[in-house]
Amino acid sequence: MGSILVVFAGALYFLEAKEQMRSFDQRLYDVCQFMAAGVEDGNAQNRKRVDLEDVPILGSDVLSLDTALVFARWYSPEGELVQFFGDIPPSQLKNDPGFQTTTEVVSPRSFARDALTDRSPNDQSAANAPNAEAHPIRLRQLTLPVYQDRQLIGYLQVAVPLTPIDDALAQLRWFLVFGVPSALAAIGFTGWVLGGLAMQPIRQSYDQLQRFTSDASHELRAPLAAIVNNAQAGLIDLTDPLEQQLRLEKIIGRAESMGILIGHLLFLARHEGPLNSDSFSSVNLTGLLRSIAEDYRQQATDKGLNFSCELPDSPLMVNAEPNLLRQSVVNLLSNAIRYTPEGGSVTLTAARQAQRVMICVEDTGVGISAEDLPHIFERFYRADKVRSRYTGGFGLGLAITQHIIEAHGGEISVKSQLEQGSCFQILL
Ligand code: ADP
């Protein structure tokens, strides 16, 4: 952005300088033409003679010019000085016809008195002051060959100070010198602020990913260590078959739990992002929930829980991916059974709510504290670490459920009180 600005500023300056010089030269040329129009070619005493009487500045004519001339000179066709205004010039014409830029030491008195627009009356009086000092200034001069009847009658040479252009360009330079760094600073600051804002979600997801990776490896390391320990201990004493069987059962148990965890991780990795709508179909939710309830009724009864399922008689149709929807309800139901002690109750309900369908999994279990409640949908978060580990959870079930429900465009919420129970509600 900096280099673009610098190139842009350079191009702007170059074009402006070029344009100013072009219009300046045009004015100088017009002045020269105007003066040259006053030149009269005639014969006097049988000699060819050029009459400069009517030429503004050079002649005695009082015609005024609206441009400040530093000097005006008339040279014969042979290049000899005939008449001049301003500082004493060389007696021979030195320059080729055309425009030239020179730097000359010019006494302020030598400015044409009639010069009006480019110098204020104050400047003019200063220029005419008796003790005004001579100083070098940049001049733009034009040497114009003057023809009459296709015959060269002489050269008119005029010069004007380049001060107006120099002043305007100096102003532009100041503007660019301060403007470009200020614009750069403003762009840099805005870019920095916007970049920071844009980076925030990226940083958050990077942190999340890092946490997820370290949590996942931590979770995998514990059962892996248990497997290695049991295998090593089993190898020490190969004589006791009962001990061997115990060790092998522990190894199988740990390996199975690792398998479940890897299954969860794979699920989250595979279903990252929105779901493919091709996999959606019209699902009879009542039927789906009834079949889940049948699967879990026995488990709940075995644990000594009262399990009830309240579903409407008419089918509730939803557009969903049936396996994922089943998985999300199963996660809630198995949690409810897992975290409800013997004698408690677990209820699965579903009902129509205006244009939506509500699924509710309620229990009278251990509940979740107010501090844990905002975090329980985070990956690997376990409200009660010791109890959750004991009950076999990885802290991924609710994250998966929330992921599935949101991918379906639904919402999941929870209400819970410690030692009172929890109520998970899905709206589809
Ligand atoms: P986990 O596999 O550990 O159960 P989840 O993601 O399913 O992981 O749940 C996260 C945490 O939320 C659990 O560790 C548990 O502390 C709490 N939790 C989830 N469901 C319930 C519930 N029905 N009753 C009490 N606590 C629950």
Briefly characterize the structure.
The chain is 46% helix and 23% strand. The chain has 8 helices and 14 strands. Bound molecules: adenosine-5'-diphosphate.
Write structural notes for this entry.
This protein is of the alpha+beta class and 428 residues long. It is 46% helix and 23% strand. It has eight helices and 14 strands. It has helices at residues 2-36, 121-128, 163-236, 241-270, 285-302, 322-338, 385-390, 397-407; strands at 40-44, 47-51, 71-75, 81-85, 98-106, 135-148, 151-161, 281-284, 306-310, 317-320, 345-353, 356-363, 411-417, 421-427. It has a five-stranded antiparallel β-sheet with strand order 4-3-7-6-5, covered by helices on one side. Helix 3 packs antiparallel against helix 4. It is rod-shaped. Residues 331, 335-336, 339, 363, 365-368, 376, 381-384, 388, 393-399, 422 line the site of adenosine-5'-diphosphate.
What is the number of helices?
Answer: 8
H/E element order = HEEEEEHEEHHEHEEHEEHHEE
Q: State the distance separating the first and last CA atoms.
A: 49 Å
Task: Give the radius of gyration.
Answer: 49 Å
Q: Which blocks of ≥5 consecutive residues have pLDDT under 50?
A: 113-131
Name the beta content range.
15-25%
How many E strands? 14
- Widest sheet: strand ordering: 4-3-7-6-5
**Helix-and-strand structural type:** alpha+beta
Rounded mean pLDDT is 85
Shape: rod-shaped
The level of helicity is: 40-55%
Largest sheet: 5 strands, antiparallel
Ligand types = adenosine-5'-diphosphate
